[in-house]
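Quick one: structure tokens for this chain, please?
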Amino acid sequence: MTDEIAHHQPVYDDLITKGQEVSLKLQPGADRNQLERRLTEITTRLADVKKAASERQKNLDRLVPVVLGYVELRTEFTKWLTGAEKELFNLALSSPNQDLAFLLQKQSKLKASIVFSNS
């Protein structure tokens, strides 16, 4: 936005210069007053646009590092989350009934080995 304002600055300068020249040539009266009001209005509007653009640029300069940090953290977290989901999927029981029977059988073997080692 600042570049665009700078690009239009010569047009503004020329407009104000020519307007002031015309104003000086006009007789005092309504036309001259109206032209001067319009020139003042244009000057005020441009100043407001410059001020708003400057404030937005300051906000962007402040926010860009925060946004980039967020993107970096989000990327790292997403990679970790994807890995954790894959790991969880690999640990999941394939079939509740079949895996339950397998786990019960393993539990029985472990109990037997505990009983055998205690005797």
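The chain has a mean pLDDT of 86.
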